[in-house]
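Entry 14. Structure prediction run on the chain below.
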Amino acid sequence: MKKSIVKLSMLLLSVGAMSLAVAKDIVPNSWINTRVTYDISVKELAQRYYGDASEYKVILNANKGLIGKDLIVKKNTEIKIPITEKFTDQPEMLGWN
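Output returned:
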């Protein structure tokens, strides 16, 4: 029983909850949190997480106030990546390229 509760707690912490859906294909109340290890563009994040750089607005809308007009996420910033139908597994480490 304790193991199940711990697993569920870890899952909830890693997925989180989102209060605002920004597109119809987002899984309601679901995202992952990630901290970027270097300056990276929102379009590059969209390419890595969704396989489509044009999906950058989903990330941008979920992180209002954290990302400037230049669309760059600064090093050590923790952001939300909404889980959509296009979402793929989280890259092991951003910056391993």
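Residues 2-15 form the longest helix (14 residues).
Filed with the rest of this week's runs.
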